[in-house]
Write a structure and sequence with these properties.
- The chain is mostly helical and 67 residues long.
- The protein has one domain.
- The protein contains three helices and no strands.
- α1 runs antiparallel to α2.
- The radius of gyration is 16 Å and the shape is elongated.
């Protein structure tokens, strides 16, 4: 059996691979490590007057990134 190269997979490919191979603990670890490495950007604060617009824009951006 050949070694799976998780680092060469896109986020979507790695996620799909793990969903199809749930017994592969290394795939889960690679997926979770990759997700934890992402920086968490602060989009807005609760008292920001543009709160709603910024949240909607962030949601739309994330949705378009996942297509």
């Amino acid at each position: 059996m050949s070694k799976i190269e998780y680092v060469t997979m896109s986020d979507q490919q790695l996620r799909q691979y793990f969903l199809e191979h749930r017994q592969d603990e290394a795939a889960l670890k690679a997926y979770l490590d990759r997700r934890h490495q992402r920086s968490t950007e602060v989009i807005t604060t609760a008292n920001d007057p543009d709160f709603d617009a910024k949240i909607i824009a962030a949601i739309r951006q994330q949705m378009s990134d996942n297509i």
